[in-house]
Design brief:
Blueprint (H helix, E strand, L loop, with lengths): L2 H13 L16 H9 L25 H4 L3 H10 L15 H12 L10 E4 L3 E9 L2 E11 L7 E10 L8 E4 L4 E11 L2 E12 L7 E10 L1
Parallel strand pairs: 1-6, 2-5
Antiparallel strand pairs: 1-2, 2-3, 3-4, 4-8, 5-6, 6-7, 7-8
Length: 224
């Protein structure tokens, strides 16, 4: 299989089943609030509910605003994703499905952002978030997970985990070149424990025949 046929598979990945994946941000029509909290949590955990209308939910734990959510976001991950004890069985509300749980973990790994990031970020040497990837006339947002890769000159690779079309723009958008399989990322913010550690530019290349889709990190350069 050559680069172009591999790209065809990559492009189909972008425009089919993953097109409606939940954005790992709080706000937006496709964000965590609308796709997770509003559907599974706000029946009890909303600041406009009081007394018995909360069905036993603590008055200090609400998910209807970002300000109320942030102090308890880790708690939401623990109860709804890890332990799967929320929503309680007695509520009749379904537990989070796999897509919702995956989005919640991606949101946590990104540092619980409020809105879509305008710059690419690599959080805790793990999750690479690309707000805008240009592929010809198309634009996508993508999330990749860092992995060790023996065949990479840097020993590092990235697995494509999710992607979706976007209308966003960025002065530092990544660009994928179908002819060569190259992926150029002009600027990546390195974040460790929520604190910026500086920026780098990066060059990657698509791993031919990879399934799941993988990229090799060819080089990275510190941006002064």
């Amino acid at each position: 299989m050559n680069i172009k046929s591999t790209f065809t598979i990559l492009f189909l990945f972008f425009i089919t089943g993953h097109a409606f994946a939940i954005d790992p941000v709080y706000e937006g029509a496709n964000g965590i609030r609308e796709k997770v909290f509003a559907t599974n949590c706000l029946f009890c955990h909303s600041s406009n509910l009081v007394g018995s209308a909360r069905n036993g939910a603590p008055s200090s734990v609400n998910w209807d605003t970002y300000e109320a959510t942030l102090p308890n976001a880790t708690r939401a991950i623990e109860r709804a994703v890890n332990l799967m004890t929320m929503p309680p069985a007695s509520s009749g509300i379904p537990l989070l499905d796999e897509e919702q749980r995956t989005a919640m973990l991606a949101w946590q790994n990104a540092g619980f952002p409020r809105a879509t990031l305008s710059v690419a970020t690599l959080s805790d040497n793990s999750l690479l978030t690309l707000p805008v990837v240009n592929i010809g006339n198309y634009k996508f947002q993508a999330t990749l997970r860092q992995i060790p890769l023996d065949t990479s000159p840097t020993g590092i690779g990235f697995v494509l985990e999710r992607a979706a079309p976007t209308t966003a723009s960025s002065d530092n958008a990544a660009t994928f070149f179908p002819e060569t399989g190259g992926l150029t990322i002009p600027s990546v913010e390195l974040v460790q424990n929520g604190i910026s550690q500086g920026r780098v530019s990066a060059e990657m290349t698509l791993v031919t025949d990879s399934n799941p889709v993988m990229f090799t990190l060819i080089s990275s350069t510190v941006i002064p």
